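The instructor's notes for this session suggest beginning with a concrete chain rather than abstract definitions. Hand out the sequence below and ask the class to guess, before any prediction is shown, which regions might be ordered.
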Amino acid sequence: MKKLIPQFGEARLHSHGDAFTTLARSIVGQQISVKAAQSVWERFVAAVGGAGANKRLQPAAVLALDVPALRAAGLSARKAEYLGDLARHFDDGQVHVRQWQGMDDEAIIDELVAIRGIGRWTAEMFLIFHLMRPNVLPLDDLGLLKGISVNYFSGEPVSRAEARELGEGWAPYRSVATWYLWRSLDPLPVDY
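After discussion, reveal the predicted structure:
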């Protein structure tokens, strides 16, 4: 880390958008290219009624659309179902956005993975990029494992156990270390 950090100047993580929009965008972007995700996102936002600079995407607006309307925006049937489930969780108060600041990371992860379409990796990315939690080590992230391999193991494959052990030395700033390792592979800042 001592060698990596100075290489990337003053760049910092910044949180963008509200929780619902951030999670919806992560579902839309799953398993498709960045370009395709942006195109589908724009059509989805237009179908829902827009979410301009001063407007947030509203769960009720997503719930007002049926699956065929969501599919017409370019979403798969599965992603349309996932977005509906996300909207229901927010609309019904099953997620406790206002309490998250006082909750520990694992409690938030448990709450988020109860939503269809959100797995542990997505929840950890949400903790890092939206809630700005400083001590998340996403052991399922291939970029993190590759960054550790390249920077600490001369390119040799690294196990999750080895990554976890190394990551203990970065606590309580494992999110920061992860971000620098990602940047070591791709100098453009990771941004969600």
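Then share the key points. The first helix runs from residue 19 to 28. The domain at 137-185 is CATH 1.10.1670.10 (Endonuclease Iii, domain 2).
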